[in-house]
Amino acid sequence: MKNKKKLVWNSPVVLCFAALSFVVMVLNLLTGGLTNRLLFTTYRAPLTSPLTWIRFFTHVLGHAGWTHYIGNMSYLLLLGPMLEEKYGSKRILGTMAVTAVMTGAVNFLLFPNTALCGASGIVFAFILLTSFTSFREGEIPVTVILVALIFIGQQVYEGLFVRDNVSNLTHILGGIVGAVIGYRLNRRLR
Fold first, then answer.
1. Which has more pLDDT, 67 or 141?
2. Residues contacting 164, CB < 8 A, separation 6+
3. Fewest beta carbons within 10 Å, which of 97, 104, 149, 170?
4. Alpha carbon 124 to chain centroid distance?
């Protein structure tokens, strides 16, 4: 029994987020969409309602369907553990919270007739944050430029020319949050 293997909870914030999102997805299916409308989607609602403020944070846990959930969780589970190991659980949780509030608030202010749910803003924050992992003071990694051009450029293009239910602005905002946090964190860590 020398080679006994054990499961390791290697990325607590990312794994808890994925598990919570899974529970929210199941609850949404069981309630016919009621839980998403009530707690896990942000939309224009009175600011006097405490739920409006809660949804600025919780909309990232809700997803429109299994394809939406699986797409977001695939990226989060791929990128998140590496980022959580490098920057720590507290910083990753902070990045996720800032991204959630930014995307929720901007959607609330600019798109009064549009509901928003899903973790894609966080996914794009993680994508840009990942490109900063080899950042050094006084240098701009070519990968940062290419990732920004490819991922953000695609979102700008799709936002202008493709009509679908994807919030491209959320992706762009998430990418900006990830880039700013990645730059600031890596400046401090060097």
1. 67
2. 158
3. 149
4. 6
Question: Span 12-189: which CATH code?
Answer: 1.20.1540.10
75 by Cβ neighbours in 10 Å (0-12 / 13-18 / 19+) ranks as middle
Retrieve residue 172's tokens: 């762009």
pLDDT at 102: 95
**What global pTM score does this model have?**
0.87
Residue in the block written with tokens 């050094």: 136
Which DSSP string corresponds to 127-190? HHHHHTTT--TT---HHHHHHIIIIIHHHHHHHHH--SS--HHHHHHHHHHHHHHHHHHHHHH-
Q: Which residues pair with 116 in a beta bridge?
A: 42
Polymer length in residues for the chain:
190
Per residue in 9-39, pLDDT tens? 899 999 999 999 999 999 999 999 999 999 9
- Paired tokens of 143: 């990968």
